[in-house]
Structures are given as C-alpha cells and as structure tokens.
C-alpha cells in the first residue's frame, strides 16, 4: 500500500465534521507496531469542528427546557 503525506496546514480548511483521518506513523515505534499488528494504520481520528458544536442560544430560549403542566 502506498502512503501519501498530507500536512495539517495544507488540508485544515477542507476538513469537515464527520471526516475520518487515517494515520500512518513515520517513527520507529510505528514501524514496530505495524510489524506486530500487520496493520499499516497507526491511528484513526474523527474530525469534529468546534463551530458545529455551538448551540444557537436564541433557538434554545424559544421553548422551555421542561414543559410545565
């Protein structure tokens, strides 16, 4: 399997929430891990952008959190 290296600064503006990032290590510890696990991936991460986590305060205040009977 051929690997391509992409630097974070080169791709950060194109990343979207829910994207998966697959990591292949370049250090010796990564090579050792690959040998013993027979895996070419060292780690996996999921992108969650902070602006997607913000709560719209106006919408939240439109209705009560607890309905009173």
Automatic annotation (TrEMBL):
UniProt source species: Clostridium magnum DSM 2767
Name the record gives this protein: Uncharacterized protein
Top-level division of the source organism's lineage: Bacteria
